[in-house]
Design a protein that fits this description.
Elements (H helix, E strand, L loop, with lengths): L1 E3 L2 H13 L4 E6 L5 H13 L2 E6 L9 H6 L4 H8 L6 E3 L3 H4 L18 H4 L3 H16 L3 E5 L3 H13 L5 E5 L19 H6 L2 H13 L5 H15 L4 E8 L13 E9 L2 E9 L3
Parallel strand pairs: 1-4, 2-3, 2-5, 3-4, 5-6
Antiparallel strand pairs: 7-8, 8-9
Helix pairs in contact: 7-8, 10-11
The structure holds pantoate.
């Protein structure tokens, strides 16, 4: 696995691959790799001839300076975790390779960026859309792999690839969970021992609600009980617990079409997000 830090060096390599008729897959990450990321790498390896993993902690998608500062940076151990996958390139761009002096572009995806994390984290999805556009162009990727845990992000990136006529096909991959149900996330590293034991309650609440929603129960009849369970388990502020259409993310009261239930809730100073698919009733 080569570690590349400049877009020019990356371009030399991708041009060579493309001339040879090879396909390129990319897994964009901010590092602190866990089994969820590694499953995306596995998917990419299975589907494309060459695989690039990108590692860039993107300042533009953090609306909270403390969150940016505390974001885990584990470059050496990330490289070690990737070794068994025989990835072709770990692309760790120097900041000026993404945001050169005078950088003046902001990509904003309306519709699917609104509400949920878009409301709770103003500017977040502009930051994501801008950096992902650059990473897809710099890597010349034919396919890009994103986890469904960040389902709203997956919708934003799908929309932007379509609207900008990018050649990259966006592939959504299932959320990978710990044995107790907690969705894997780099932020889980910041949970204290007690909080880590409580955290899977998020998934259990979603599962319970999903069962009832898929039998036709309206969301509003289920919210008080869910809020109570989270509070009793020790969770803090609930940023949102909402039902949205799986396509387009329209707010729903019942799962009258394929839907997803979304949550963002604070525990031990860490913001946990998760979501679950609800088949149409
Ligand atoms: O999901 C992430 O880790 C980031 O939002 C991404 C897609 C790498 C963009 O910085």
């Amino acid at each position: 696995m080569r570690i590349i830090r400049s877009k020019a060096a990356l371009r030399t390599l991708t041009d060579e691959w493309l001339r040879g008729g090879e396909t390129i897959g990319v897994v964009p990450t901010m590092g602190a790799l866990h089994a969820g990321h590694l499953s995306l790498v596995g998917e990419a390896k299975a589907k494309t001839d060459r695989v690039i993993v990108t590692l860039f902690v993107n300042p533009r998608q953090f609306n909270n300076p403390d969150d940016l500062e505390n974001y885990p940076r584990t470059e050496d151990s990330d490289a070690i975790k990737l070794a068994p996958f025989a990835v072709d390139v770990l692309y760790i761009p120097d900041p000026d390779q993404i945001y050169p002096d005078g950088f003046a572009i902001n990509i904003s995806v309306s519709g699917v960026s609104e509400g949920l994390c878009g409301a709770a984290r103003p500017g977040h999805f502009d930051g994501v859309a801008t950096v992902v556009s650059k990473l897809l162009l710099q890597t010349a990727a034919d396919e890009a792999f994103f986890g469904e845990k960040d389902y709203q992000q997956l919708q934003v990136v799908t929309r932007l690839a379509k609207d900008l006529d990018l050649k990259t096909k966006i592939i959504g991959c299932e959320t990978v969970r710990e044995p107790d149900g907690l969705a894997m996330s780099s932020r889980n590293l910041r949970l204290g021992t007690e909080a880590r034991k409580v955290a899977p309650v998020v998934h259990h609440v979603l599962q319970d609600m999903a069962g009832k929603l898929s039998q036709g129960a309206p969301l509003s009849t289920l919210l008080p009980d869910a809020q109570q369970k989270l509070k009793a388990a020790g969770f803090g502020t609930l940023d949102y617990l909402e039902l949205r259409s799986a396509e387009g993310l329209d707010p729903l009261e019942t799962a009258d079409r394929p839907a997803r239930l979304f949550i963002a809730v604070w525990l031990d100073g860490v913001r946990l997000i998760d979501n679950i698919a609800i088949p149409a009733t």
